[in-house]
Batch of 3 targets.
Target 1
Amino acid sequence: MTDSAFLAPGEYIDSDHSAVREFARRHAKGNTDLERAVSLYYAVRDGIRYNPFLDFSTDKPFRASDTLAAGEGFCVGKAALLAACARAVGIPARVGFADVKNHLTTPRLAEHMGGSDLFVYHGFTEFWLEGKWVKATPAFNLELCRKFRVMPLEFDGRHDSIFHPFDADDRRHMEYVRERGSHADVPVEEIRRVFRESYPGLYKLGKDAAKEAFSP
């Protein structure tokens, strides 16, 4: 890891924002980068509620500080926040992306997504720890996992934390179908372009749609 961009503030991974720095300071527990990264992972995973029903025509869903201020966000915003917190305490971090097929998508969410169960540009965080990049996926908070019987993702700082292929009832859950690479900052315009093409009905929804889409 030689790129200083993975420690510098970005437009969306705004690790120099005062609220982000304070959140990171409070939650980065431990004596090593690995211990602090693990502590930050759980703080973001469970402290920020997962909500994919946001207005993606604005910058707020993609920016770390705005996700923190809202107390909720979708996978990309939460990944950006986790990366920003890591950088704020001196841990190199970046964001990575993949397309994933969610075999347990609720009917209402699938309807909003034009009948698709493919989530394009799913976002996660990558930390530079003990000489290698390690993936961490803070998207689904513990409360959401318990509600839908999805296995919560744990993170130990040494092994990739990515979606489980099966849920707690052994039903097929997440399938990774395409890697989209890693970035020093969130490639918002590219994500917007792909979102517009993939989900014309979802692209601009209000926050109130979340309860309806995730209800049984």
Target 2
Amino acid sequence: MSATSVQFTVAAHIMAALGFRHGEELRSAMLAESVKADPTFVRKSLSKLSKAGLIVTTRGKNGASRLTRSPKQITLLDIYRASGARATFAIHRYPVEKKCPVSTNIKGCMSSVLKNAREGFENTLDGITLADVVGR
């Protein structure tokens, strides 16, 4: 079984902290302390969020990060996509056993199921803003 990815939830935690203190610049050390994660991992997450245009980060000894727009204008889908989290499920790569009707059809069937599940997940995230998260 593959490892569980925490990239999305760490990115959401970082963004919630920035959203909670919207308008303020927060240092990566403070964000790492809030997440209780390795500062290097948090900086990698900040880099991804910055590349996606969700935050702006200044580097250096006094470097800090802040949101680029209101928490009401940022969705969890924005954060999910920026985080680079890998897909939860994937189709296996085992060869097809041509004599078996299940083996010859399961990948196509499951591809459709997983596509619908991913779309439902992403639609849910698209309906939740960072402001909603911070408000909870």
Target 3
Amino acid sequence: MLSHVFIGVGDFDRALAFYRALMPVLGIRERFCDPQQPWAGWQSQPHPRPLLLIGKPYDGRPHEAGNGQMVALLAADRVSVDRAHAVALAHGGRCEGPPGLRPQYHAHYYGAYFRDTEGNKLCVACHEPPA
């Protein structure tokens, strides 16, 4: 369904350090990084799409985190949700909701919410029952 998601950042180096710490927890590898643009991208395996990209806004104006916008990343299990949340907070993220069940979404929805170093809201979610 998705080709790619682009997340705007103001401080590319700070955001890059955050995403370089977070994405491996979810098994998502870095595909490229071009500090001259600046932008970087990660992709799931085995397919080349969707991509998650970070970079400075194309129009050259300052980055602003969107109200009501959120990117949700898929975790294979609940332990990965817990680890991703901890890594995010350890690398400058802000908690927006600790890891836990959210039965209002569905019986096995286990998620955590946080803001990246640029104020963008992210979620890491697992939709599977415990192992």
